[in-house]
Amino acid sequence: MIKFLIFLSTLSFISYSFSKEPTTLDRNEKIHFPKIKIKENVWNGGAAIDIQKVLDSVTRQIWPFVQLEKLDPICVNRSQTGPIVLYERGKQGEFLVKLNTEKTYWCQYAFQFAHELGHIICGYKKGDRSNLWFEETICEVASLFVLRRMTKEWKKKPPYPNWKSYGPEFAKYAQMRMDKNPWPNELSLSQWYQDNKIKLVNEPTDRNRNVKLANKLLPYFEEDPKVWSAFIYLNIRKTQKTIKFSEFLQNWKEECKTFKQKKFVDMLSFNFGLKN
After folding, report:
1. What is the pLDDT of residues 117-176, one digit of tens each?
2. DSSP characters for 25-52?
3. In a domain, 19, yes or no
4. CATH number at residue 258
5. Is residue 82 within 8 Å of residue 112, measured between CB atoms?
6. What range defines the domain where residue 63 resides?
7. Whole-structure pTM value
8. Is 94 contained in some domain?
9. Is position 114 within any domain?
């Protein structure tokens, strides 16, 4: 009987049902959105005021679930090499984000900014790169998560009425990336990790591989968006010391503040095959 009860408990743990969790926040809950400042006249015809509308829409999709009371402003400039959030800060402590896009390519703006916002949410910082692949993957999740939600928002309330027809493009853009890097249905997360763990350490920014893994993880976030609140603790203990992924996850769990955040980390650890 005891073994049977343990078995049932294990099944419940593995599934980690998110269906009971609300996917929105209380309307009376006051959200302090980060201030975004757009560099003008560097977007090859893209108007800063319009870019502002798009990036504000990006922030609305994810920031309420992060549950941080305050974030320093984010200054957005253009890059000619690739999107990035710099380690250095502005004179007033601003985050410095650069996007490699232009004109009115709103999907690119949204995709790239959501990724860099993901790094900010994860508390990115210099240090050991052994587990950077996980943060990079979570940032890919952030992009897919945001794009799919933006389509829903713009269907009802676009920044401008005449932009409503553009809304479906965000979900299409996300789906294109997901279709290009599908997760094999027969492959477990633990088997995938065992097959790739050496490459993950050596090549943390392999975009195709990270998007493939993001495909697998995205449902957890869409079923319960409040799991984003756990990621503000992800890199608190990050140093120059090289540690295994299992220790990285354990450190993260210990920094999490709520039972549900810790349970989420436990679920990931279990599914990666790192806990019995």
Report:
1. 999 999 999 999 999 999 999 999 999 999 999 999 999 999 999 999 999 999 999 999
2. --TTS---PPPEEEPSS-STT--HHHHH
3. no
4. 1.10.390
5. no
6. 32-271
7. 0.90
8. yes
9. yes
